[in-house]
UniProtKB/TrEMBL annotation:
The keyword Cell inner membrane does not apply. Residues 1-140 form the N-acetyltransferase domain. Keywords: Transferase. One of its GO terms (molecular function) is acyltransferase activity, transferring groups other than amino-acyl groups. It comes from Staphylococcus intermedius NCTC 11048. It comes from the Bacteria. InterPro entries: Acyl_CoA_acyltransferase (IPR016181), GNAT_dom (IPR000182). Pfam families: Acetyltransf_1 (PF00583). This is Acetyltransferase. The lineage of its organism: Bacteria, Bacillati, Bacillota, Bacilli, Bacillales. The keyword Transcription does not apply.
Length: 157
């Protein structure tokens, strides 16, 4: 498996993500409304095919993970993407990484805690507010849990 950084998603990467994974490039969370094609990313490849992508943005002293998708679960892809972005943060002398997920995303809640991130903020009903901007956000997750709240995780170095 190889990992490569990009300043933003290029046309071939966008095409592969759309074709193979029906990837949604429009993200709405309490920190902003993002076109994911416009931000730096780290892409995991296996045999030339994308198996994971982490999209992030940097502020003066914070790196925010906007999107993390592993298309090969339980293979360490997500953890290695996290390690790569943590190295980038340290190179940029950024000591704080934040990520927002939703209350029903049990896998993400486990994953971020396993990787040393701590819950730092809960925003009740934040997803209801995001639905005003992006009505396609589902009301209920695949696991049957209503999607309502955002949970922010933070890791300090």
């Amino acid at each position: 498996m190889t990992y490569q950084s990009f300043q933003q998603l290029n046309a071939p990467l966008i095409s592969q993500l759309k074709t193979h994974y029906h990837f949604d490039f429009n993200m709405v969370v309490s920190s902003g409304h993002y076109d994911l094609t416009q931000f730096p990313c780290i892409v995991a490849f296996e045999a030339g095919r994308i198996v994971g992508v982490l999209i992030y943005r940097t502020d003066t002293d914070i790196l925010e993970i906007i999107s993390l998708d592993s298309f090969r679960e339980n293979m360490g892809v997500g953890s290695r993407l996290i390690q790569h972005v943590e190295n980038i943060a340290q190179t940029l002398n950024i000591q704080t990484i934040q990520v927002i997920t939703t209350n029903e995303n049990i896998k993400a809640l486990y994953f971020y805690q396993k990787n040393g991130y701590r819950m730092s903020n809960i925003r009740p009903n934040a997803v209801d507010i995001a639905r005003h901007i992006k009505p396609s956000i589902p009301l209920i997750g695949d696991n049957g849990i209503p999607i309502k709240d955002e949970i922010q995780f933070t890791k300090y170095f």
